[in-house]
Write a structure and sequence with these properties.
The complex is a heterodimer. Chain A is mostly helical. Helices cover about 70% and strands about 0% of the residues of chain A. Chain A is globular and about 75 Å long. Chain B is elongated, with a radius of gyration of 33 Å. Classes of the chains: A mainly alpha, B alpha+beta.
Chain lengths: ~425, ~600
C-alpha cells in the first residue's frame, strides 16, 4: 500500500508493455520493408539499403519511427496526450484546410505539404488528433452519447476533418472516418445505425446493378418483414411499442425509397468521374482492362498467380516487372500475395487481426475511459485501412488509394501509425503500471 | 464468450477477415485463371522452330530438303524515322508498299501496341545481306531466319505434298499446333507429318509491363531445345518417278508402279500434277491451280474411280476357276460378241473362235468372259443370282477392290464394287440376272477402281495370289512402318489358278501376232513381260486406255499399271507408258528398238 502512495511501484517493462503488440508492429514493419524492396527490385538487383531507392528510404523512415516509438513509450508522459488533444486537433484541422489551397495537384488531390525535400500529408496525422480529441471529450464523466448536444459535438469532431479531407479529394482517407462509428457503437450508440448504414450501401449497389423497383421491393419486404415479426413476438398490451415500431418501419421504408431515387443522382452528379468508373468496374457494369480496371486486374493476377506457397522472395514475375502500378505504396499487398502466396497473405492478415484484437482487448479492459476510447479509435482506423486496402487489391472494393498500415512505403503513413499505436501502448502501460 | 459490444466487434473483425481470406483463397488456389494470365502477362515464349525432316527416295536421293530463307519483321513501336527509299532498295520492294504498311501501323497503333509483325516474307539471301549491312539505319526492323522446303527432284507435287501455315480452323481441331506453325497438307508431307514435324523448342523470357524482354526465366531452366524432325525414306524411286512424269506429260491419267515382293510403291504419277517449283510457296499459286479445269490438285492415283476395263477379266477368270465353273481348257465361241437376249450383243473384236481361257486372256475376248461370268452367277450352289453375286463380290474385295487398301498415303479412296442390294434396289428383288449386269464381266458398268487398286492387281498377279498393302514409306532409322505392311494379304483364289492366268498374260505380250496377243508391243527382248490391256468405255468421251504388266515373269521386280484418260485403245497409250517404265526400272535404259515408243510418248500431248 505504501509503495502505491509514493508512486514508485513499477511492475517492470516485462509486465507493463504489451510486447505482443510491439512484436506484431515490428513484424509488420519488417515484412513491409522486405516487400517494398521486392516490389522495386528489378532484373538488376541493387542493395536493399541503397539510399536512392525506396527500400533504402523506407529503412530511414523505419529507424526514425522506432526512435519516435521509444520516445513515446519511455520519455513522454502519457497524460500529455489528453492535455494537448484540443490544441493538436485545431492545429491539424487548420493544416487540413490550408493544404487544399497551398498544395500542388497530385493526381487530382490536394493533400501534400511540400517543404523542400520533405513531403507530408496532414490527413495521416488527423486520424491521431481526431482519436485523441474524441477520447478526451467522450471520457468526460458527465458525457452522455444520448444527449443531443453531446452527440452533436462528437459528430462535429469526426465530421469536420472528414469534410476537409473530402475537400482535398482524398476519398479513401475520409472513408476511414466512417470507422469511428464502431467506436460510438462501443460507447452506446444503437447498433441500428451501423445496420442502417450497411443497408444503405446494399441498396445503393442493388439499385446500380438492377432495376429501381427491385430495390424498393427489397426495402418493402425488409420493413414489412421486420414489423410482422415484431407483431408476432410482442404482446397485445405493448401497443405503444407496436405503434412506435410501425412508424419507424414506415420511416425507414420511405428513407430507403428516397435513397433509391437519389442513387442515380448521387452516382452521376455527386461522385467524380474516376470514382464512378471505379465503382462500375467493381460491380462488373463496365469492362475496362486497360483503363480503370487495369490496376485491379493486374493486382488480382499478381496475387492470384501466387498460389499456396508463392513464387518465392524476389521471384515474382508480375510485381518485379512493374505490371502492378503503385506497387510499393497502395498495392504492396500484391507483392506479398505473389511472392509469399496464400500462406503469406494468411500470415499478414492474421498479424493484423491479432493486433487489432489485442488492442480491443487491452482497451476494453482498461479502467480509464480515455485509454479505452482511444484504443477503439485506433482499432477502427487499422481495421478500415486493412479492409479497404486489401479489399481493393483483390477486387472486393473499388480502387481507393489508402495505404496498408505499416506495410506500405511512405514516411507520413508509417510515422502516423507508429505514433498512433505507441500512444496506445504507452497509455496501456500506464494503466498496468498503476493498477 | 460474453456477448458484449466489444466481442461483437471482434466477431465482425473476424468475419470481415474471413471474407478477405476467402476471396484470396479463391483467386490464389481455387481459380487458376490468374496463373495463366500471369504467365501470359510476363512470360514470353520465343519459339525455336526445328528443321522439318528430309524426305529421301529409296536410293538415298533427297526428294524434299530444307533451305534457309529470310523473313523481315517489324515492331512498329520501335520504328524511328528512316529512309524509305533505302529500305525499299534493300528489300527489293517499292517505297509505296512501305509507306502503305507504315500508314497501316499508324492507323492501328493502339491495337498493335508492342507487338512484332511480319513485314515481308521470303526475301532472297542477296537482299538479306543488303538489309543486314544497313540494318542499323532501320530501327524496329529485324530479319528472321526460317527454313523452307526445297525440292531437288521434280518428283511430283501430288506425291510429295505441300506444307502450309495452319489456319484457325485447323488449330481448333489440333490444339498442339499454334498460329505460325506449318503442317503437311497433302501427299508424303501429310502422311508423315508426325515424324517430319519435329518438336518445337522455346526460350522463356520475362518481360516487363512495357513488353521489354528482361531476363531468361529461371535462367533458362525451363527452356526446351527444339528436336529436329525425323528424316523419312520413301519407297519411291526418284528417277522412275521423274521418268513416269515425263511420259505422262500432256496426258490425263496415272501411272503406279509397285514392287510386288514388298508392296512398296516405286512410282506414283498423277497427271497433270502440281509442279514442285510452286510447292514451297503454294499459297501464291493456289488460286491458279484450283482454277485449272484438269484439276492438278486431284490426286488421280488414289482418288479417281475408273472402270477398270478388260484388266478386270483376269479377276473374273480367276473366280471362275476357283469356283469350279471354269477349267482352263473350256472353249467358248465368240463371233464378234456375246448375244444376251433379244437382239442385244456385247461386241468383241476379230480373233480366232472358239478359244480357250489362255487365248481369251491373250486376245482379251469379251464373249469368253461373258460365258465365264454367266457360269459364276448362274452357279446352282448359291440358289439365286443375288447370292452368287455376293459370293463374287467377296472374291473381288479380297483383291483390294471396292474398299480402301489401307495405304499410308493420305486421302486414299476405295472405288466401288456394287452389292446385290444395290441391284435389288434398282431392278427389284429377284428381277435381275447375269444378263442385267453383264458389263461387269469385262470390268465395265458400276465398277470403280483407283489406279492404285489396279496396280495392286498387277502386283497380286505377279505374286500369284497375294499382295502387300501398297505403301510409300520404308523402314528407316527412327521410323518404323506399321507391321500390317509386311503381312501377305491373300486373295480367296488359289495360287495354281493364278499361274494359269499369268500364262495368259504372258501370251498376251509374247504370244506373237498369230496368237492375237493384244499387248505384243510390250514385248521387251530378254525380259519375260506379262501384261493385260484394257480399254474402258467412258461415258464422257473417248475410251480410257489401261494397261497392267509385271516383269520378269518369275520373281517379278516391278508391277505397273497405267491409266490414260480419253486416249483410245489400251495398247496404244497406256501400254507404252507402263512398259517403258518397266524397262527403265529393270534395265535402266530403253533398248534401241523401243526408242520409237518413247519418242512417240514424249512428243504426243493431248492438251
Amino acid at each position: 500500500m505504501a509503495t502505491l502512495e509514493t508512486g514508485s511501484f513499477d511492475r517492470g517493462l516485462g509486465k507493463t508493455v504489451d510486447w505482443r503488440l510491439v512484436g506484431c508492429y515490428l513484424a509488420l514493419v519488417l515484412i513491409g520493408w522486405l516487400n517494398i524492396y521486392a516490389s522495386i527490385h528489378s532484373a538488376e538487383p541493387g542493395s536493399i539499403f541503397s539510399w536512392s531507392v525506396r527500400s533504402g528510404k523506407q529503412a530511414i523512415w523505419i529507424a526514425t519511427a522506432v526512435v519516435l516509438d521509444v520516445l513515446i513509450l519511455f520519455v513522454v508522459n502519457p497524460r500529455l496526450w489528453e492535455v494537448i488533444s484540443p490544441y493538436a486537433y485545431v492545429a491539424v484541422f487548420f493544416l487540413l484546410v490550408l493544404v487544399i489551397f497551398v498544395s500542388k495537384d497530385v493526381k487530382g488531390s490536394h493533400s501534400w505539404f511540400e517543404l523542400g525535400p520533405v513531403k507530408f500529408q496532414p490527413a495521416e496525422i488527423s486520424k491521431i488528433t481526431t482519436s485523441l480529441l474524441l477520447a478526451m471529450v467522450m471520457s468526460k464523466p458527465n458525457f452522455r452519447l444520448a444527449n443531443r448536444k453531446h452527440f452533436l459535438y462528437v459528430a462535429l469532431i469526426i465530421g469536420m476533418p472528414m469534410l476537409a479531407i473530402l475537400g482535398e479529394s482524398e476519398t479513401g482517407s475520409a472513408l476511414v472516418y466512417v470507422g469511428f462509428l464502431f467506436v460510438l457503437y462501443r460507447e452506446g450508440l444503437s447498433g441500428w445505425w451501423i445496420a442502417l448504414l450497411g443497408l444503405a450501401i446494399l441498396l445503393f449497389i442493388l439499385t446500380l446493378v438492377t432495376k429501381w423497383w427491385i430495390s424498393v421491393a427489397v426495402m418493402f419486404a425488409l420493413c414489412a418483414g421486420y414489423y410482422l415479426q415484431l407483431l408476432h413476438h410482442s404482446r397485445r398490451e405493448q401497443r405503444n411499442l407496436r405503434r412506435r415500431m410501425f412508424w419507424r418501419c414506415v420511416m425507414a421504408f420511405l428513407a430507403g425509397v428516397v435513397l433509391v431515387f437519389a442513387t442515380d443522382f448521387i452516382f452521376n452528379n455527386v461522385l467524380q468521374d474516376h470514382q464512378r468508373s471505379r465503382i462500375e468496374v467493381l460491380l462488373g457494369m463496365k469492362e475496362d482492362p486497360a483503363g480503370v480496371g487495369y490496376n485491379v486486374r493486374q493486382s488480382m493476377i499478381a496475387i492470384g498467380s501466387g498460389g499456396l506457397f508463392g513464387k518465392g522472395y524476389l521471384q515474382g514475375t508480375q510485381t518485379t516487372y512493374g505490371f502492378v502500378p503503385e506497387q510499393s505504396t497502395d498495392f504492396i499487398f500484391c507483392t506479398v500475395g505473389e511472392e509469399w502466396g496464400f500462406l503469406g497473405c494468411l500470415t499478414v492478415i492474421l498479424l493484423y487481426v491479432f493486433m487489432i484484437w489485442r488492442i480491443l482487448n487491452d482497451a476494453d479492459r482498461s479502467r480509464e475511459a480515455f485509454t479505452r476510447i482511444y484504443g477503439f479509435c485506433l482499432a477502427a482506423c487499422l481495421f478500415m485501412h486493412l479492409f479497404i486496402n486489401i479489399g481493393m487489391t483483390i477486387g472486393l472494393m473499388p480502387v481507393i488509394g489508402i495505404p496498408l498500415p505499416l506495410l506500405s512505403y511512405g514516411g507520413s503513413s508509417l510515422w502516423a501509425f507508429s505514433v498512433m499505436i505507441f500512444i496506445f501502448i504507452a497509455l496501456d502501460r500506464q494503466e498496468k503500471k498503476y493498477f | 464468450m460474453e456477448m458484449n459490444r466489444k466481442n461483437r466487434l471482434v466477431i465482425g473483425l473476424v468475419a470481415v477477415s474471413a471474407i478477405l481470406l476467402g476471396k484470396i483463397f479463391y483467386i490464389q488456389i481455387v481459380n487458376d485463371k490468374y496463373k495463366k494470365d500471369a504467365s501470359n502477362n510476363s512470360m514470353v515464349y520465343n519459339y525455336v522452330y526445328p528443321p522439318r525432316g528430309v524426305i529421301y527416295d529409296r536410293n538415298g536421293e533427297i526428294l524434299v530438303g530444307n533451305e534457309v530463307c529470310y523473313d523481315i519483321s517489324v515492331t512498329p513501336r520501335d520504328v524511328r524515322p528512316f529512309d524509305t527509299l533505302a529500305l525499299a532498295a534493300a528489300l527489293d520492294t517499292t517505297a509505296d508498299f512501305i509507306r502503305e504498311r507504315m500508314a497501316y501501323y499508324e492507323l492501328y497503333r493502339t491495337r498493335i501496341g508492342y507487338q512484332t509483325l511480319s513485314f515481308i516474307k521470303h526475301i532472297t539471301p542477296e537482299n538479306y545481306i543488303k538489309f543486314a549491312e544497313e540494318a542499323y539505319r532501320f530501327p524496329g526492323f529485324k530479319a528472321e531466319v526460317r527454313s523452307v522446303r526445297q525440292y531437288p527432284f521434280n518428283a511430283g507435287g501430288n506425291l510429295l505434298g505441300y506444307i502450309s501455315e495452319v489456319d484457325a480452323d485447323f488449330i481448333k481441331e489440333h490444339p498442339d499446333y499454334r498460329s505460325g506453325d506449318y503442317v503437311g497438307k497433302t501427299g508424303l508431307e501429310a502422311a508423315m507429318e508426325d515424324k517430319l514435324r519435329g518438336v518445337k523448342g522455346y526460350h522463356i523470357y520475362l518481360r516487363d509491363s512495357r513488353n521489354r524482354l528482361q531476363s531468361p526465366y529461371k535462367d533458362g531452366e525451363e527452356d526446351k531445345p527444339a528436336e529436329p524432325g525425323r528424316d523419312v525414306v520413301s519407297t519411291i524411286d526418284a528417277h522412275l518417278q521423274q521418268y513416269g512424269q515425263r511420259l505422262m506429260e500432256g496426258k490425263v491419267g496415272s501411272v503406279v508402279a509397285i514392287e510386288p515382293s514388298t508392296g512398296e510403291i516405286l512410282a506414283m504419277v498423277s497427271s497433270p500434277g502440281i509442279d514442285v517449283d510452286v510447292l514451297s510457296d503454294i499459297g501464291k499459286h493456289y488460286a491458279e491451280i484450283a482454277r485449272n479445269p484438269r484439276k492438278p490438285m486431284f490426286n488421280r492415283t488414289v482418288m479417281a474411280s475408273y472402270p477398270p476395263g478388260s484388266v478386270f477379266k483376269l479377276i473374273n477368270g480367276l473366280i471362275g476357276l476357283q469356283e469350279g465353273v471354269l477349267v482352263p481348257s473350256d472353249s467358248y465361241p465368240c463371233n464378234h460378241g456375246f448375244p444376251y437376249g433379244g437382239n442385244r450383243r456385247l461386241g468383241c473384236h476379230g480373233h480366232a473362235s472358239p478359244l480357250n481361257l489362255l487365248s481369251a486372256i491373250a486376245t482379251s475376248c469379251n464373249g469368253y468372259f461373258c460365258y465365264v461370268f454367266r457360269n459364276i452367277l448362274d452357279n446352282r450352289r448359291y440358289g439365286s443370282t443375288a447370292a452368287a453375286f455376293d459370293r463374287w463380290r467377296e472374291y473381288v474385295l479380297s483383291f483390294g477392290f471396292g474398299r480402301k487398301l489401307g495405304s499410308d498415303f493420305p486421302s486414299e479412296l476405295g472405288g466401288n464394287i456394287p452389292t446385290s442390294a444395290f441391284y435389288n434396289k434398282v431392278y427389284g428383288e429377284g428381277r435381275w440376272r447375269f444378263q442385267t449386269v453383264i458389263s461387269l464381266s469385262i470390268g465395265q458398268g458400276e465398277i470403280g477402281a483407283t489406279p492404285l487398286q489396279i496396280a495392286n492387281l498387277a502386283a497380286t498377279m505377279a505374286n500369284r495370289g497375294y499382295y502387300y498393302i501398297p505403301h510409300i514409306v520404308k523402314d528407316s532409322e527412327g521410323v518404323e512402318i506399321d507391321p500390317k505392311y509386311k503381312e501377305r494379304q491373300y486373295t480367296l483364289v488359289d495360287t495354281t489358278h493364278f499361274k494359269t492366268c499369268v500364262e495368259g498374260m504372258y501370251m498376251a505380250v509374247n504370244g506373237g501376232g498369230s496368237a492375237g496377243g493384244t499387248a505384243f508391243s510390250a514385248r521387251i527382248p530378254g525380259l519375260d513381260v506379262c501384261g493385260k490391256t484394257g480399254t474402258a468405255q467412258n461415258p464422257h468421251g473417248k475410251d480410257n486406255s489401261v494397261f497392267i504388266c509385271f516383269a520378269p515373269k518369275d520373281n517379278p521386280k516391278i508391277a505397273v499399271a497405267a491409266y490414260v484418260e480419253n486416249a483410245g485403245f489400251g495398247a496404244t497409250w497406256a501400254l507404252p507408258v507402263a512398259s517403258l517404265m518397266l524397262e527403265k526400272y529393270i534395265n535402266g535404259e530403253i533398248s534401241s528398238e523401243r526408242k520409237y515408243l518413247e519418242d512417240r510418248l514424249l512428243t504426243t500431248r493431248f492438251f
